[in-house]
Amino acid sequence: MPTLADSLVEAARLTPKRVVLVDGDIHLDCETLHAQARALAKALLSRMPTGSVVSFMLPNWHEAAVVYLAATMAGIAVNPILPSLRDRELSFILDDVDSRMVFVPSEFRQHDYRAMVARVTAELDCPPEVVVVRGDAGDHTAYSALFEQTQNTTEIPSLDSAAVRMILYTSGTTGRPKGVLHSHDSIHALICQLRDHWLIDPGDKFLVPSPIAHIGGSIYAFECPVLLGTTAVLMDRWDPDEAVAIMASQRCTHMAGATPFLEGLLAAAERADTRLPDLKVFICGGASVSPPLIRRAAAYFDHAVVTRVYGSTEVPVTTVGSPTDPDYAADTDGRPGIATIKLVANDAAPPGSGEIHARGPQMLVGYRNPDDERDAFDDEGYFRTGDLAQWVDDDYLVVTGRAKDIIIRSGENIAPKEIEDILAGHPDIVEISIVGLPDARTGERACAVIVPKASPGPGVDSLRDFLADYGVAKFKVPEQVVIWDSLPKNDAGKVLKHQIRATLTKVDE
Hints:
Layout: H1 4-14, E1 19-23, E2 26-29, H2 30-45, E3 53-56, H3 62-74, E4 77-80, H4 87-97, E5 101-105, E6 107-108, E7 111-112, H5 113-122, E8 129-133, E9 141-142, H6 143-148, E10 164-169, E11 179-183, H7 184-197, E12 205-208, H8 215-227, E13 231-234, H9 240-250, E14 254-257, H10 259-272, E15 281-284, H11 291-300, E16 305-308, E17 340-344, E18 354-359, E19 366-367, E20 383-392, E21 396-402, E22 407-409, E23 412-414, H12 416-423, E24 429-439, E25 443-452, H13 460-469, E26 480-483, H14 497-508
Parallel strand pairs: 1-13, 3-4, 3-5, 5-8, 8-9, 12-13, 12-14, 14-15, 15-16, 25-26
Antiparallel strand pairs: 1-2, 6-7, 10-11, 11-19, 17-18, 18-20, 20-21, 22-23, 24-25
């Protein structure tokens, strides 16, 4: 099977002046991107053998795409790292992956990456070479110096499409991060699925504000422009009003992101009095997505399909959403694409639900540490996601929560996401997260943490009445309400329930 490197060579030959990346005032065409990636690939190979690993901890900058493609051409695995991580996480990842080179900015968002990476590498037994992108490199290697030192005699290797080419670390919210391994073949299968299901045509433009160190941001910025003939418009800081202006001026057709991105884009478009007529598709996933938000956005962006999807770093885009079935776009997480899904009975699952086990050509080829694979797969090779779901009309999946998120109160199982989705439509609620807290009488109690539209916010009685109108069983009603100004989230917009639970548990002590 052709690799991304093969496709980049062909794109440079067949459509040399087609713009693939927009980064502010910088527009990279196929020919320029190929030339820069090839030069950097040779520089990498002059420093390390094929099969090594290089890391980058970069914002959504075009240089990250050059690094990604250069490593691919050189047969070197690339390891994207979130810029929001700090010393402890960076140290663990660089050591665990045995990175030979790490690309960082000198400074970004008032954080000194040059100083941080110096602290981290000083403590490693086998530290990587540090390359600074944009800004003073200090004692480290300047990004530009790699191109000046290129050894032109270095041969670009032939690639094995089954080889590992990307290592992404999970968030590690319940333990140490796990290195997820993807190959040329697994990512290529994923991109083909997007092409077939997300109304993507050559010449389409993706706005990419999601972090490129996540699987989502990386494929829209690095893969689709080369493999599908699209253009990636990069944003290194999320600003909804700026996003609307960029989408209008660039005539962006696609965007994918977590709930906060859709919420922000919709509000900014309303402020600007534009319905973004070029927008064809908005894919919303990566965090809990409320049905009312999908319906409001679909009604407002009247030329766009707005749909929920479900996936993970291990099995990206497990469902393709419902871009051609709008009746299911808001209330389900879509139907399977190339992945096969089965729901397996689980003690924590409410009746009619099961744990999602998924298998498909886009799934991970393994973990960096084999020990992490011990309980990751079932006997048929399906990945155990740890997420619970139920089927609707036989073909559409509704994710009801994490197995560990299930609240067991007086022997009754409560799926928080089911209640969150309903209460997201409450007129006094901006955001809501429901967690289980220890309770001496019932084992656990359901606590609703609410960001209200106005003070003081709704109480338990208001939630009970609202849920009763939806015919929800009384045992599912939260018996505690806490009002917060905001919910803690990671870079993908996923609510960090473990932090909420820890904070509230500490308060109760």
